[in-house]
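Hi C.,

You asked whether I'd gotten around to modeling the 96-residue construct. I have! Everything is below, sequence then structure, no commentary in between.
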Amino acid sequence: MDHEGIHQLVLTPLAERSWRLCDRNVERGDAASLVAYVELLETGTYEAVWVSLGLGAARYASLEAVFLAAMELLDHPCGTRSFKPAPIPHRPPARS
């Protein structure tokens, strides 16, 4: 994987063990610049909550792995949303 694109990403500290992962290619005031919230867990792994991509959370062994995952997701956003949503169960109408 080309590591050149990683330089478009920046970690901004929120607390001692948590950061915002932002995309410098998106205007700073634009909400889409927030890629993920990242937290160092007690287990030593990093949890990324993918905000702009809407993919939920995932855990990674290192910050480098978080950056590489972010680059892959940003490079292929269509592929990440190609799944069919789960159907919502419906109840039959109430009878009077």
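If it helps when you're writing up: The two ends are 62 Å apart (CA to CA).

Thanks,
B.
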